[in-house]
Structure formats: C-alpha cells, structure tokens
Amino acid sequence: MTRFLLAPLMAITPLVLAAPVAAAPTPAVPATGDLGLVQRHLQALDTMTAAFVQTDRAGKVLTGTLTLKKPGRIRFQYQQGVPILIVAEGGALTFVDYSVKQVQRWPIKNSPLAVLLDPDRDITRYAHVVSSDARTISVDAVDPKHPEYGRITLIFAREPAAPAGLTLEGWVMLDSQGNRTTVRLADQKFNVAVPDNSFAWTDPRRKGR
C-alpha cells in the first residue's frame, strides 16, 4: 500500500537522480526546440495546483490534490480515508503515515521532487523529446548510468495561456521491475496565490507541531 501511495513522488525519481547533487545547482543549459519549451515552462512555474488521479498496473486508483510553490514547497494530499501525506517545506521532504504514526524526512535536493522545485537543473543532460505534435509533447527521462532507477515520460499539452505555452498533463513511470504507474492531472492552475500555510502538517508522533 505504501509503495503505491508513493508513486506520484517516486515517478519523478529518474529526473532527480540523473542530475548530480552539489552544494550549488548546475546552471541550466538553454535547450532548443520542444525540450527548450519544457525547460522554460519549468522555469516560469512559480506555483501550481491540480487534482490528480493515480492508477497502478493492477488498475487500482487513488485521487488527491497537488499543490506546488517555489522555492522548495510541494504537497500531495490524498483522498479522504488515505492516511498518507507527502509534503516538502523548510528544505526537507516529509513522508507521513498517520496510520502507524511514522514520519520520514530527507533533503529536498536529494529527492525526486527537485526537478519541479529547482528550475536551474539542466534537463538536457537526462531528458529528450520522444513525441511531439500540434497538441502534445512527451519527454522521456532516464539516467543511462542507473537504469535501475526506472523511466518516466512526462506529457505536456500545448496551451498558449499556460507558462511557456505548456501544461503538465501527467506522467507515466516504468520501474526496473516493469511496474507501470500513471498519474493524470486536471484543473491545473498556474502562478496563482498559494498561502504558505498550505504546506503545514501535523506530526502524529506528538501533539501539535
């Protein structure tokens, strides 16, 4: 159950692990063509909210909401009844399982979410366009040195009113065991007001926080 719930988070893992972690981020090399559009979209994205639908290879579905705010904040809020929360704030990514009162934390820069929260990462080093037409762009990302990290395909729709003319529609992840997870986004809103307290959470190990 926990592994399935983590899929929206882990689906982005190859994008982050493909880029080396350093004290200072490697400046992004300007990409060209459709990959350049993707890079500019990520750089222009200050906030985003969306609903998500997550489906595993067995057809099991979970829903929730995604909230993002740069720098360094993101929240995956699952549907009512699912006791899991994934939230990034204060330089750390936190995974909370309220059913067992467990909290795990690690640096955002070492997490799968860094690609969305750090626009300076050089996507030309690990991503390429696999398909492109008048309506969509699909970008495949994989670390050739670590194929065990899996593969992710990000799907963007061309939308003139969105940042850099693109909207992230979702992603498909294939892990090293051949497990496929699909995440679809809807009702995306870009660069809207997102209060800082949107990323607050309650620590189940003690009262308050």
The largest sheet is: 11 strands, antiparallel
Q: CATH H level: which superfamily?
A: Lipoprotein localisation LolA/LolB/LppX
Q: What is the fold named in CATH at topology level?
A: outer membrane lipoprotein receptor (LolB), chain A
Distance between the termini: 26 Å
CATH class: Mainly Beta
Number of domains: 1
Q: From the 3D coordinates, which CATH architecture would you assign?
A: Clam
User: How big is the Rg?
Assistant: 16 Å
Q: How many strands in all?
A: 11
In terms of per-residue confidence, which ranges show pLDDT below 50 for 5 or more consecutive residues?
A: 1-5, 10-27
Write the layout of secondary structure elements.
Elements: H1 2-5, H2 7-10, H3 13-17, H4 33-44, E1 47-55, E2 61-69, E3 73-78, E4 84-89, E5 92-97, E6 102-107, H5 114-117, E7 127-132, E8 136-141, E9 151-158, E10 166-174, E11 180-190
Antiparallel strand pairs: 1-2, 1-11, 2-3, 3-4, 4-5, 5-6, 7-8, 8-9, 9-10, 10-11
Could you list some keywords that capture this structure?
mainly beta; eleven-stranded antiparallel β-sheet; 209 residues; disordered N terminus
Structure characterization notes:
- With 209 residues, this protein is mostly beta strands.
- The chain has one domain: Lipoprotein localisation LolA/LolB/LppX (outer membrane lipoprotein receptor (LolB), chain A).
- Helices cover 14% and strands 39% of the residues.
- It has five helices and eleven strands, in the order ααααββββββαβββββ.
- The protein has helices at 2-5, 7-10, 13-17, 33-44, 114-117, and strands at residues 47-55, 61-69, 73-78, 84-89, 92-97, 102-107, 127-132, 136-141, 151-158, 166-174, 180-190.
- Strands 6-5-4-3-2-1-11-10-9-8-7 form an eleven-stranded antiparallel sheet.
- Strand 3 and strand 4 (84-89) form a beta hairpin.
- The longest helix has 12 residues, at 33-44.
- It is globular.
